[in-house]
Amino acid sequence: MGLREDLSLPALAHLNVLASVFESVDAAHDAEDLADFIHVFATLTEELDPDEVLRDINEDRVVAGFPEVRALDQVEAELVQRKRYYRSAIKDALNRLPPKTLVKVMTQAVDMATSGGDEHAPELIDDLVDSYEVETKDFLEKEEENVHKLIKATRDAAKSGEAGIKGYIDKLELVTRNWDSVAQPIQLSSKARGMEHEASLGLGYEIRSLAIDLFNKHDMINQSQRLMNLLQELFAEIPDITERVEQDVDALADIFHKRKQSAAQRAEWDREITYSAEIGVIFKDTLSISPSGVSWKGVSFPLDAITRVRWGGVSHSVNGIPTGTTYTIAFGDGRSDVVVELKKEQIYSTFIDKLWRAVCVRLLGQVLELVKAGRTIQFGESVLHDDGITLVKHKFFGANENVKCSWEQIQIWNADGSFCIGSTEDKKTNVALSYIHNANTHILEQVLRMAFKKPGLRRLSELLD
């Protein structure tokens, strides 16, 4: 063992001495030391030069009085046999080790010889890996089969939710790590030779496919990220998988970040729309709005159930002297609504602001989506279309007439607590929609004012662009 670092010996003599050292390796030998020994030995075999060996042999033969060897091919043939002997000596030493130690020695030796898979290994290392691959084939195939079974079980259990697959993912990670620990030397050697380890490639893609499906089909971003991180760790020696998984991890990280932002924005939105106030002098009732819905006098509507809203104020006076304003707020679904009347402007304006954010923005979007789909919507006496609006032509004699106007043919204004829409070509063609009494007048007004801000608009659905 003391001759391992002796550089004074010729390469062949040095190798012959060291080959005999492998016979002393037993099951208790330190794995790291043996891996380094194999690396040094394999590197030394690369220094064998048939011409130098022939020269050394003939120098000794001349001194001993033997005839010189003339044929270089004889030396080359014998060196081939020597290398086989070296490989056999190392394999015998490895086979005396416990399985886990053997795998560890092979992995460390190949890692050192290839600089982590980036450089070509000595020929002896490649030969050892080829033998190792043959001898571990049965084990790897059995463990690979177990991985496939766990992947199938995970897919089947995914319908039951994230809690139902966690145990399978735990087992899948354990078996994959066990499989990869044995496959590591082969992966490193394949990478150093510029090849893909087909078994690793196939297994890696199967796990990646599971990770993608867990996210795309079941929205399990945490388990998907866990599998992607596992692939990055275990299959770092497989360039094709590494490149694709890095893209996947970046995409999942971006989605996760946006979800956190979205959750924060949702929490902020929840805070912004939440409000409650007591209304009444003696007998008080609570008017409230929150993410769970809008409530008044024990009647509640979920936010998404509200399909109609209306509000407005009426000023009162006696003999020309203002006596205050009565504010009306109404909201409901397709079957019923509730009406709130109050005197305090601050409560009224605050609640309307919350109601607009919580309900009206959604209703506005739904109006645009409906007309884009070819539907028409009734607002009082008017009918809204994507490409225009049907108004009423009022006649002194005879029945009134419905007239459809394009967006270029209408004008809008406010008068006497109503939103008014009229034809620019006929003063008698118009409708007046009360803010207090006609449902969703405020929604229609906002849609039309948005449309008027877009020059050349021909269809309302263009606002969705």
Describe the protein's architecture and organization:
- This protein is of the alpha+beta class.
- Among the domains are: 94 residues, PH-domain like (Roll), CATH 2.30.29; 89 residues, no CATH class.
- The protein is built from twelve helices and 14 strands.
- A four-stranded antiparallel sheet has the order 1-2-3-4. The chain has a four-stranded antiparallel sheet with strand order 8-9-10-11, covered by helices on one side. A three-stranded antiparallel sheet has the order 5-6-7, covered by helices on one side.
- A hairpin with a 2-residue loop joins strand 2 and strand 3.
- The two termini are 79 Å apart.
- The model has no long low-confidence stretch (mean pLDDT 91).
Question: What would the keywords be for this entry?
Answer:
12 helices; PH-domain like; 465 residues; alpha+beta; four-stranded antiparallel β-sheet; rod-shaped
Give a brief rundown of this model:
By secondary structure, this protein is an alpha+beta fold.
Fold topology:
Elements (H helix, E strand, L loop, with lengths): L10 H11 L9 H15 L4 H15 L7 H24 L3 H16 L8 H35 L4 H31 L5 H19 L4 H14 L4 H35 L1 E5 L5 E6 L2 E4 L2 E3 L6 E11 L2 E12 L4 E6 L2 H28 L4 E3 L2 E3 L3 E6 L7 E6 L3 E6 L2 E6 L6 E5 L6 H12 L13
Antiparallel strand pairs: 1-2, 2-3, 3-4, 5-6, 6-7, 8-9, 9-10, 10-11, 12-13, 13-14
Helix pairs in contact: 1-4, 2-5, 3-4, 5-7, 6-7, 6-8, 7-9, 8-9, 8-10, 9-10, 11-12
